[in-house]
Write a structure and sequence with these properties.
By secondary structure, the protein is mainly beta. The chain has one helix and four strands.
Length: 100
């Protein structure tokens, strides 16, 4: 059941970088969306970019770690146009496109 859930959950994100070493694959995946936040923060969803580091063994997810950052409110009207490099510096180095 866990694999089905993770496959569905990760399927809603786009792979922006993949590195393969024999049977193990490391992926950085990304999702940009309007995310609901607790009501004491805001009554309205806010634009966020989420990046997920995924480790796979023979295609099966071993583990994942995710980081989400806030986007400016001006991004609300054009989320589909936000590129991976636009807010790359807000993420830790291990989730950036330019890191090795």
């Amino acid at each position: 059941m866990r694999e089905i859930y993770l496959a569905r959950w990760l399927g809603r994100s786009a792979c922006i970088r993949r590195k393969r070493n024999h049977w193990v694959t490391l992926e950085i995946r990304r999702r940009v969306s309007m995310e609901s936040v607790p009501s004491h923060v805001s009554e309205y969803p806010l634009p966020r970019e989420e990046r997920i580091l995924v480790s796979r063994l023979l295609g099966l997810v071993l583990w994942h770690r995710e980081v989400s950052v806030a986007l400016p409110n001006s991004a609300c009207g054009h989320l589909e146009e936000v590129g991976p490099q636009d807010f790359d510096r807000q993420f830790p180095t291990w989730l950036r496109l330019g890191s090795n």
